[in-house]
Amino acid sequence: MANIKSQKKRALTNAKANLKNSSEKSQLRTAIKKVNAAVAANDKQAANEAFNKANALLDKAATSHLKHKNYVARQKARLAKAVATLG
């Protein structure tokens, strides 16, 4: 444990940021899984809704530097391709 006051504060803010980032990453993974599950079930309406939610979360992750922009672009392309197969 740190002895310096500013480092104690920094440790607290790091812990808060870690919780927030973990939560957002988990939401993102869940949203991607929901799109894939809807595609697997051939449910076009659910897939489109899940895809829109996943796109929003992916964009948010890219702007907050939670995920790299190329990762986000790749995931969006894969999900769009999967949803498009439903016709």
Can you characterise this structure?
With 87 residues, the protein is mainly α. 83% of the residues lie in helices and 0% in strands. It has helices spanning 5-40, 44-63, 69-84. Helix 1 packs parallel to helix 3 and helix 2 (44-63) runs antiparallel to helix 3. The protein is elongated and about 60 Å long.
Topology at a glance:
Layout: H1 5-40, H2 44-63, H3 69-84
Helix pairs in contact: 1-2, 1-3, 2-3
Overall structural class, as computed from helix and strand content, comes to mainly alpha
Q: Cα distance, first to last residue?
A: 57 Å
Q: Could you name the CATH class?
A: Mainly Alpha
Count the strands? Answer: 0
Helix segment tally: 3
Enter the CATH topology name: Methane Monooxygenase Hydroxylase, Chain G, domain 1
Report Rg. Answer: 17 Å
> Mind telling me which CATH architecture this is?
Up-down Bundle
- What shape does the CA trace take? elongated
Spans of at least 5 consecutive residues with low confidence: none
**What kind of sheet is the major sheet?**
none
The H-and-E topology, N to C, reads as HHH
Helicity, as a percent range: over 70%
**Quick one: CATH superfamily?**
Ribosomal protein S20
Kindly report the average pLDDT value. Answer: 96
Work out the strand percent.
under 5%
Domain count, please report it: 1
